[in-house]
């Protein structure tokens, strides 16, 4: 495709430059808002060029670091490249890059983990300081200078609004057919001027198809031609399939009991192999005319749209395998009729999640016997990725489900523990816990009944005797029978794993 | 006042009976939804008569227990009386009764702690089982059988809707002038049929002044004449005043920085002496034309309405001293123009709290150095009261503030600890921590910076060296620098207190 066809606004064609020249416009010490959500729609060229720039500055003994705000996770070309040169002072609100993770856990990078629905309003309110520059990937620019969003929306609207200067990456590698798939709502405001968000069905559109940016803000336009991260999914393993089966059985029972309608309620699904297995199960299952109101569309949901099981889907980003991405591009008109991509302040908004009655399906690192969930920290201290949108959906959804295999690291770790080493979702927000062993339905249960239910249904049989023993001794200790714990043993499983390699 | 003036519907006058006869209509094993929120508007006579009934059954060796669902806390006449005879199988969603607390912590009563905004929808969805009977205090009944709500609304609408049978208590002791103060919204629904809640200002009315109940459901009407719990507040002590001052200074700085408007944003305030001190401070402070969107109106907010500092207030219940209650009754027309009492599904609704941008002010038991907050559990296991609405407001508000004196039990307990023994509000939901020592503004800070901020600003000087020592050793342990912890020491402060009476 030609430059003219993608950058239809002549004025902006005058600002085309190399990634290297654009990166040189970013000084040290600034806060930079970048596009990108679950490895989709992130800038492909400027971050790498900036990393080179930083490396050169460091060779001159200059300290050069920036803070990077995104939608969610990006890719090696962004987080990886900047982390490698120690170029990131502060990162928010979510990341999943291995190199970033290492830098954060080694203490060489600051990281703030934030509910994804909170980010736009906090930034707008100035809680994170001033946003200086935005670097945003788009599919193209219209004649009148409106921006065609890319494979993720994330916080792009907010970054463009808040930044003094904007650098655009126009990615020729993204399907031009994405134009028209987005719905960018410009009706949010700071209190006391907020109005109801007019969304009552997942597929409703009430915004603009384009991102709006005053052209004078745009200091550079960089052309790229590169795919998104597009990582391949493993085929569902046995544990994932078992988890999916437990969940499908549960849904069937809920429909039978008339606690869920036959088409279920709008689905939110976290990212990963278990989530994809659940979607594969739903694609084979008895439910029809389903909808999704979620953050991320993975392969599983794309297949469900294709089969017709899923009627409509709303998200803020794609996260596809190369094959699924090709399927999307080849049938973009079909999918554009069925998919709406929104800003993450809407995709994750408590108001609309609560109103729609979303079924929240999220993975976790570990749960404790009382149903508190750790989604972010390994052994209390090391961050894995971040809370992402799991809190937005778990707290406000109609049903809140957390899933994990019952063991990790070859069976040396039990993901059901006496006390989680970090809490991201409190007992109040966790209704259903599922492992390959079974499903614990915690609705209406007080803590000790939750414990029995989780131990007997979800824990791996190898760890059940130990868990029962802890729980019984905690009950017998008479320290307090509401949530019985042994203070000097509650975290001993984690401690034991670190000391001896086995919980 | 006469029976005729309070029970204007002739049909319902025929169902007047004694509390004893009404209580006899409640069989063992049922789920009973009772009115009552923060010691206001709870039934005064039937629970005590039921307790007598239970005692008699127990004397005949019959097992007689019920489950009690309320709005929030009640009083000795309800929770106390039923707990005393071990008459409660299961209690939800909140309580603060000393005897209940003891029974729960001794393992003789089950208790489920629930976000107050979740209760109505969970009950409606059948997550807690079937509601059999509702026992609701009202101020009176209109000619056509509509019910005039009392000094709290709580979950009354939901209990009346969901229960098969309803017992009314008409309390002659409640001011007849409460009529017209309430706004009962009948527009909520289960998904997928939910619509936006049409509230954009705290004082807006969009519902009914009355509770609606099909007369055939009403199996008994009991007349009472008794005051609410109406507990006296202590005058603000030095620590409460210091906390209030830190907070007022913070608000002034935020207004100056234009992160808050001059009239602030709608205030939510938890219950208790610190909350009352903050309101007293605001009543003397520089802010005018404030509003409140809160659960409970205490003496402090009533005084602010009187002075004109507070223009309008929305809540679901009063919680007043005897003097303030008299002030309310004597000037009920003045207050009716300024106060709206709503169902707790609206007063605590994430949608409207987020839209209004509420400033959430809540107390806590302890916070850890990373800003996780424990609102409910003493030393991990013993429940104090419950999470109440603190999660609804902290998660969805514009600003989330948690307050506590820096020490408890004569200085033997530090309320700032390495790791909280129970998490109700995760780091993501805690922006401002205040003690009498100072205020920690955690917005935009990653975990280690939060720790330094909390230790140096909020911890008591007697405990700062120990906290710094823990934090430094955790950092040096290199177990993970995102949230440095020592697994075998994280809960040692609580353990030490239990073993030696001193953290």
TrEMBL record, chains A, B:
The answer to whether UniProt assigns keyword Transferase to this entry is yes
Gene name as annotated: cat1
Q: What is its EC class? A: transferase
Give the UniProt family note: Belongs to the acetyl-CoA hydrolase/transferase family.
As one GO molecular function, the record gives: acetate CoA-transferase activity
This protein's superkingdom? Bacteria
Give a GO biological-process term: acetyl-CoA metabolic process
- Does Transferase show up as a keyword for this record? yes
Pfam families per the UniProt record, alphabetical: AcetylCoA_hyd_C, AcetylCoA_hydro
Task: Fetch the InterPro entries from UniProt.
Answer: AcetylCoA_hyd_C (IPR026888), AcetylCoA_hyd_C_sf (IPR038460), ActCoA_hydro (IPR046433), ActCoA_hydro_N (IPR003702), NagB/RpiA_transferase-like (IPR037171), Succinate_CoA_transferase (IPR017821)
Q: What is its EC number?
A: 2.8.3.-
Keywords of the record, alphabetical order, are: Transferase
Q: Where is the Acetyl-CoA hydrolase/transferase N-terminal domain?
A: 12-223
Q: Which residues bind CoA?
A: 365, 385, 389, 409
**Name of the protein in question:** Succinyl-CoA:coenzyme A transferase
Instruction: Give the Acetyl-CoA hydrolase/transferase C-terminal domain ranges.
Output: 326-470
Q: Which residues form the active site?
A: 295 (5-glutamyl coenzyme a thioester intermediate)
Q: What is the lineage of its organism?
A: Bacteria, Pseudomonadati, Pseudomonadota, Gammaproteobacteria, Pseudomonadales
């Amino acid at each position: 495709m030609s430059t003219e066809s993608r950058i239809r606004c002549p004025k902006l064609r005058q600002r085309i430059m190399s990634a290297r020249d654009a990166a040189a416009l970013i000084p040290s010490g600034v806060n930079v808002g970048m596009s990108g959500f679950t490895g989709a729609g992130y800038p492909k060229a400027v971050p790498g060029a900036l990393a080179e720039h930083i490396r050169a500055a460091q060779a001159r003994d200059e300290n050069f670091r920036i803070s990077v705000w995104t939608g969610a996770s990006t890719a090696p070309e962004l987080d990886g490249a900047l982390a490698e040169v120690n170029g990131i002072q502060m990162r928010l609100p979510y990341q999943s890059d291995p190199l970033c993770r290492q830098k954060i856990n080694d203490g060489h990078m600051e990281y703030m983990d934030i509910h994804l629905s909170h980010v736009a309003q906090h930034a707008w309110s100035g809680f994170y300081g001033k946003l200086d520059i935005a670097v945003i990937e788009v599919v193209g620019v219209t004649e009148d200078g409106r921006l065609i969003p890319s494979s993720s929306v994330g916080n792009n609207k907010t970054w463009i609004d808040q930044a003094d200067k904007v650098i655009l990456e126009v990615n020729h590698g993204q399907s031009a057919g994405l134009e028209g798939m987005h719905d960018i709502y410009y009706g949010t405001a700071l209190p006391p001027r907020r109005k109801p968000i007019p969304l009552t069905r997942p597929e409703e559109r009430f915004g603009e198809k384009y991102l709006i940016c005053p052209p004078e803000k745009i200091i550079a336009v960089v052309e790229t031609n590169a795919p998104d991260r597009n990582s391949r999914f493993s085929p569902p393993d046995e544990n994932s399939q078992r988890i999916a089966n437990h969940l499908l059985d549960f849904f069937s029972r809920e429909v039978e009991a008339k606690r869920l309608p036959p088409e279920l309620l709008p689905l939110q699904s976290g990212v990963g192999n278990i989530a994809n297995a659940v979607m594969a199960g739903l694609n084979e299952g008895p439910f029809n005319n389903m909808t999704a109101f979620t953050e991320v569309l993975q392969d599983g949901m794309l297949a469900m749209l294709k089969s017709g099981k899923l009627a409509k889907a709303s998200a803020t980003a794609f996260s596809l395998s190369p094959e699924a991405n090709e399927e999307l591009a080849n049938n973009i008109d079909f999918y554009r009729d069925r998919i709406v991509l929104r800003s993450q302040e809407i995709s994750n908004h408590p108001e609309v999640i609560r109103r729609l009655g979303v079924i929240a399906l999220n993975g976790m690192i570990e749960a404790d016997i009382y149903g508190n969930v750790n989604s972010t920290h390994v052994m209390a201290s090391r961050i894995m990725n971040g809370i992402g949108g799991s809190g937005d959906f778990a707290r406000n959804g109609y049903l809140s489900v957390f899933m994990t295999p019952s063991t990790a690291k070859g069976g040396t770790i039990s993901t059901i523990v006496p006390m989680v080493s970090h809490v991201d979702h409190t007992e109040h927000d966790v209704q259903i816990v599922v492992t390959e062993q079974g499903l614990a339905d915690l609705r209406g249960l007080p803590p000790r009944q939750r414990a029995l239910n989780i131990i007997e249904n979800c824990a791996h049989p190898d760890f059940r005797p130990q868990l029962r023993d802890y729980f019984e001794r905690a009950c017998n200790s008479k320290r307090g029978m509401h949530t019985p714990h042994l203070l000097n043993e509650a975290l001993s499983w984690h401690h034991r794993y670190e000391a001896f390699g086995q919980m």
